[in-house]
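Bench log. Compound arrived from synthesis this morning; before running ITC I wanted a structural hypothesis for how adenosine-5'-triphosphate sits in the protein. Inputs:
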Amino acid sequence: MVGTREVFIKELADNLGSKRFWLLFFIIYALGIFMTYGAVQNLGLQRTLGENVFLQLFVIGAQGLPSFLWVVIYIAPLLGFIFTFDAINREISSGTLGNVLSQPVHRDSLINAKFLAGVATIAITLVGVIFIEIGFAIRAWSTLPTLEEIARILVFLLISVVYLSIWVALGLLFSVIFRREGTSALASVAVWLFFSFFMYMIASPLNSIALLYFSPNYIFLEAAYVILSPTVRILGPVSIEKLYGMVANPLSLDQSLLLVWSHITTLVAVTFVIFAFSYVKFMRQEIRAI
Amino acid sequence: MDQILAIETRDLTKRYNDFVAVDRLNLSIKPGELFGMLGPNGAGKTTTVLMLLGLTEPSSGSCRVFGHDPFREPLKVKSISGYLAERMGLYDDLTPEQNLRYITKLNQVPEEEARKRIREALECVGAINYADVKVGKLSRGMRQRVGIAGVLVKKPKVAFFDEPTQGLDPEGKNELLDLLKRISKEEGTTVLLLSHMLADVQHICDRIGIMLRGKMVALGTIEELRTKTKEDWVIDVEAENITPKLVHDLSSLHGVKGVDRSGKVITVRSEKDIRQAIMEVFLHNKTVPISLRARERSLEEIYLGYLGER
Ligand SMILES: Nc1ncnc2c1ncn2[C@@H]1O[C@H](COP(=O)(O)OP(=O)(O)OP(=O)(O)O)[C@@H](O)[C@H]1O
Ligand SMILES: [Mg+2]
């Protein structure tokens, strides 16, 4: 698509150069390293039993502390929509949209590029923080991750990017729907709060796992947990705590993948649907601020 | 007339719900022409340009820019047109240089050429000293200049300027108008200048169209607009001892459309130059005018005349 590359480069540079990015980047890195430090202390090296310590690094926190997975599920979505919640409406209210669209670029190139830049920003951040954590553990334990572990971490990374893309798309959708940046910011935060906290407040008393499957957070949690824990072999109305206690032969990566394949496709589909909505809405939008 | 037109619209119409913003507009602009589109706020000028650029879809009718339909071949049209929007559309957090660079990137201008064009454009509008200051920190007039540079770097075949003189000081305004004239004459760029100020367009435009409530109510060169209005002459006569008989005699002269008296000045409006006849009337009444001055109806009066039309 003509112009996608140029817009993408500009948007990515804008993202990486913005204050909001560095603020969240700092929070996520600080949390990530803090959690890893706790986990490293907590876990020790127990390779003897064939445990995948490099995977446990991401799902087990220090005593009483949440894990890195928790950071990705609850905090990283902020990084997803913080760039896109005003991606379109700010360009309309400042009048820059008319300027860009009067250049020889397709209209959809603009929204595609903004979406991709958001996803790329997330991917860069996650890759960075995961690398740092692994490096940290390698130093602490003086051992290297196995190939299996590396493969699973890569899959985890991919699923995380897909999950966070939902939040990128959501921010973008709100930036197309709402004319005011304040409104779209509030809407994004509201959805984030809902799925991060209220959903559990509703589902827990009802004891309803089925309800939780409406939450991308929960779907991602299960998928990521299975990928990072080869010993988990069933999913369903059994809580993760119980599952973790089960001792069984570990699954191979492709078996684990098979187990959560529907989760992954759901996450991809949700991203796609939300993005498609914003795309269609944007293509018919008046470019003038009235 | 098989020369291709720079801009051509046929019954171009834009409706917003029940409101007709542009009403069956027919307009032909030749390549290289500097066309001024005048009209009060809400006349539909901006809407027309947005349709020509393919940024707003017409409700009916059609338009062409150098033979290309902005909806069938949007990239063709956009690569040959430059557009300075009312709000300029610069990124506040980028410098003028970066803003222009982004435009050249989007236009796939090669790096070397881009650097040259950016320099030239910023020099041309007198903003080269501000090339590295964030646009958000520039004054409105300076931003306006950078916006114009943004059109120049594209080297467009046709340029649309939407109220480009807004916020410029008188000197800046004149410089800008000279600049538009220059790119039109030297580079052969077709220029469509939108404004609600007659003063902006009257000295530089080859042709002027006056738009009112979505319709083009007058179109032509300045001379043509002038002769189309019937009252051409306004003669002010200053005299002592003005008697009712004198006024009566003046009004009964051939070709006179009206006589107004205020204090020592009588204003005679007529179809042609009747200064001689007026002198004769005065002599007949045994008085002499202190001064007698003919002036043409100013364009401002003509413009206001059109706007006053219901
Ligand atoms: N998206 C929209 N929805 C409804 N009405 C609109 C919309 N955009 C423009 N209009 C109306 O169309 C009319 C023409 O607007 P336009 O901006 O073309 O006028 P203009 O001649 O450029 O005026 P100005 O000198 O104020 O810029 C205005 O009355 C405006 O209110
Ligand atoms: Mg306008």
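What the model suggests: The CA atoms of residues 240 and 264 of chain B lie 6 Å apart. Chain B touches chain A through 29 residues (CB under 8 Å).
ITC booked for Thursday regardless.
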